[in-house]
């Protein structure tokens, strides 16, 4: 199945360069470009891409608010947002993840990294750059005034095994690594992950990891 991608960036060279690279991939098609956040929100509604590559800093409506508007509740939108950033510890990435982004990508990424990132986010079955994303999540939960979700009741909806799987997701483990850790089949892990997302009303593994940290299930640095 072809992954439909839209690129939102105020720099024409970035949009065109990424478009050329992605259109070379047999399973990816760039269906549109947007010059700012407002343009991105409007074109997502029109084009219905699977993945949006979203720059954080754009004139007018920025990438974070555009992400929030595009993603919406998990039950209402299947569009995934992949944040484009220049620095891997950009403070704005923290808020982008909270707004519903599924991951982030450095603008200096290679063509193969770009294509793989799109595939990972479209599939929703693994964290993008687990070691870095884990560090980001840990860091923004340390930030002064970081909001804590009222997650007690929602955590209580999970079984003991699902809670265990959620904890391992937050530690950056893939399905295969979780399966090895728990000595179960990888398909069993996939089933647990799907049930966790449904029960908690979350979009993907990145959001599950954020939830695990903000709920206190996993502590930063552990």
UniProtKB/TrEMBL annotation:
The modification 4-aspartylphosphate is found at residue 55. SMART domains: HTH_LUXR, REC. Residues 151-216 form the HTH luxR-type domain. Signal peptide: none annotated. Keywords: DNA-binding, Phosphoprotein, Transcription, Transcription regulation. It holds the Pfam family Response_reg. GO terms for molecular function: DNA binding. It comes from the Bacteria. GO terms for biological process: phosphorelay signal transduction system; regulation of DNA-templated transcription. This is Response regulator transcription factor. Residues 4-122 form the Response regulatory domain.
